[in-house]
Design a protein that fits this description.
Elements: E1 3-11, H1 20-33, E2 37-48, E3 59-69, H2 73-81, E4 87-94
Antiparallel strand pairs: 1-3, 1-4, 2-3
Amino acid sequence: MKKEYQATFILDTHKWREPIDALVEQVKGLIVEMGADIVKVEDLGLKSFARCPRKEFVAGQYVTITCKADASFNKILQERIGLNPNVNRVIVEAVKA
């Protein structure tokens, strides 16, 4: 049985030269590859960080993707998304029914 999850991504776009939509599509493709059904995608925009550990990375593009997936979704997503250098962070929350 699939549960609903909300994943918020902070995208590291300081070296990304294509449109942001292409990176969002890449992340969506990964989620679909994992067998999840995407319900909603929301671009939250570019947000500046309060503390910048790297001078070249002072802001990130925030995107929230809501999807329905198996219980192992969070663990597998964390493992697979770590291989993408353009994703700085991801926070996954279960959506209460």
